[in-house]
Every structure is written in structure tokens, then in C-alpha cells.
Amino acid sequence: MSFKSGFVTIVGRPNTGKSTLLNLLTGEKIAIMSDKPQTTRHAIRTIVGTEDYQAVFIDTPGMHKPRNKLGEYMMGAAVSALKDVDAVLWLVEATDAKPGPGDLHILELLKQAGCPVVLIINKIDRVDREVLLPVIETYSLLHTFQAIIPVSALQAETRSIVMSEVEKLLPEGEPYFPRDTLTDQPERVIAQEMIREKVLRLLSDEVPHGTGVEVFRYKVNPVNKVLEIDANIYCEKDSHKGILIGKGGAMLKRIGSMARADIEKMTEGKVFLRLWVKVRNDWRDNDFMLNELGYK
User: Fold this and answer.
1) Residue 89 to residue 147: CA distance in whole angstroms
2) Between the CA of residue 146 and those of 33, 165, 199, 286, what are the distances in Å?
3) What CATH architecture is 4-169?
4) How many Å separate Cα 47 from the centre of its chain?
5) Spans of all domains in the chain
6) H/E element, 264
7) What whole-number distance in Å separates Cα of residue 49 and Cα of residue 178?
8) Residues 233 and 200 sit within 8 Å (Cβ to Cβ)
9) Could you tell me which of 90, 175, 186, 285 has the fewest CB atoms within 10 Å of its CB?
10) pLDDT tens track of the chain, all 296 residues?
């Protein structure tokens, strides 16, 4: 049996569960997750492989109408991830009775890309079966999908169901990455995202989208072998800085403690994490800041 390999992009509106699905498929936490829209900002590649195939998944930012230069970068990353791939997994929500303007826009982009599309109707655990069937029928009339899969990205059995369809769409070819590779993202970048995830998780809706994280030091101490990380959390208002730090520094300590635990799990070693909060007005529209934070 010939080996198969290829690239698969995951797309969808913000908060449809793309990163949750990606982490389920890889069996590791690579993409950060939050119940807040537009959590993912980069196109993240992760690798899932067996003795028979290697699938390189590209998790994209949720497709939305940009409101600033950061949003434009995110949309650019999402659209460019549709080029030269072997298949697309398009996530929609079972809780939506019919596709909205955002879904229809994505569908047009998929038609233009011309690659095979598997429609994944996520969050079926939130609806009754009689609600789900009309949703499947509605989408089936919009496009010729390779498959339509109703799933919950929170359930383990979803992995084998999705990977079975993905394997069918992969062309014959050699692996693109060494067998044990999990992602093409440097640990430094993943650590940066893990810190930002804690901000998203712990703070109210107003603050997180105005924050960015910069890891400016990432080095193992040669004496005690502890990984030392220094990072800045940027926000846009002095009031947000106060919220991020918290009374007596309690919130910043909590963010740091939770992020350190995840980073230690990823690196399988001790981590010493120091965080600072800095105000940079309108950094999301500042080309220099976006470049510094890896968004250009």
C-alpha cells in the first residue's frame, strides 16, 4: 500500500471549534482554545501521521470582517491557507439553523479555491436530532461536499471519523516532516500563545482582544537547566493594564501560574516565567508592533 501525504486546511467562522478539533486530531494541545471569537491569530500547522499517511493540518484564524490591521493580517492568513492544499475541513455549527453571511462568504472562497471540501457540522451535542437533519439538508444543497460529518469536537470518537475522511483525500507521496514532528511552530511561539490563552480565559470580553503577548527572552539556564521566559503583555488602555495586573498583582500571578503549568507540560521541564504588562495605544493598527509580535 502506497504512503499518502498532504495538506489540509481547517476553516470556519470565529468560535466554531477549529482549534478544539485540531487538538483532538493531534492528541496534543497545540492550538489555544477559548470561548471568545477570534482566538487564533496565526495559521498553525500540526502534523498527524500513521504508518500509512501524514496529514499536515493548518488551523486558521476565524474568518471575519477586519476592523484593524491585525484583523487584516488574520484574514490574509486564513485566505492564503486555502491555496495549494489537498483538502479543506469547513466547520459550521449545528446550533445555526441556516448559514449566515459569514458562512456564505467562506463558501464562495472555497468554491474559488476549487479543492475538495469536507463539511463538519460541529457541536451536535447541543442540539436535538430533529434539529440537526434540516441543517444537514440545507448545507447539502449549497455545494458538492466530499462528505458531511456531524460531530462534537469534544468527543473522542470524532477523531477516527474525521481522520478516515481525511485519509481518503490525501494523494500518494512522501512525508513532509520527520515522523515524530508535531508542529512546525517553535516552542517560543507556542509558549507565547499559551500565555495569551490564559488572558482570554480569565478576563472579560472587553480586554482580551486588545492584548498581545511578546516573549522577548526564552533561554535555558545552563546551571539549573530551568527554562527562563520573559514576556510582555501589551494592552491598549491604562484601565486594561490595571485589570490585567489585578489587586496586589493577583490576576497577573494567576495568568502566569496557569501558563507556566501548560508550558512545563509542553517542554517536560521546569519553567521560570516572568510577565510584565505594558500599554501601547492602538497597537493592533501599528505596523511596527504587529511585526514585533509576529503578525506581519
Assistant:
1) 10
2) 27, 8, 38, 41
3) 3-Layer(aba) Sandwich (3.40)
4) 14
5) 4-169, 187-292
6) helix 250-267
7) 10
8) no
9) 186
10) 689 999 998 888 888 888 889 889 988 666 544 444 444 445 678 899 999 999 999 877 655 454 555 555 555 555 566 777 899 999 999 999 889 888 998 899 899 888 899 999 999 999 998 999 999 999 999 999 999 999 999 999 999 999 999 999 999 999 998 887 888 778 888 898 899 889 888 886 656 567 888 899 999 999 999 999 999 999 888 888 999 999 999 999 999 999 999 999 989 999 999 999 998 887 667 665 566 656 55
pTM of structure: 0.68
Cα 131 to Cα 116: distance, rounded to the nearest angstrom: 27
> Which long-range contacts (C-beta less than 8 Å, at least 24 apart) are formed by 185-188?
185/30, 185/42, 185/44, 185/45, 187/218, 187/266, 187/267, 188/215, 188/218
Angle between helices 157-169 and 18-26 (to 10 degrees): 90
Q: How far, in Å, CA of 224 to CA of 206, rounded?
A: 40
Give CA–CA dist 27/84, Å, rounded. Answer: 26
CATH topology of domain 187-292: GMP Synthetase; Chain A, domain 3 (3.30.300)
Confirm if 47 and 183 have CB atoms less than 8 A apart: yes
Query: If we measure between CA atoms, which residue out of 132, 86, 138, 77 comes closest to residue 107?
Result: 138
Residue 193 CB coordination number (10 Å):
22
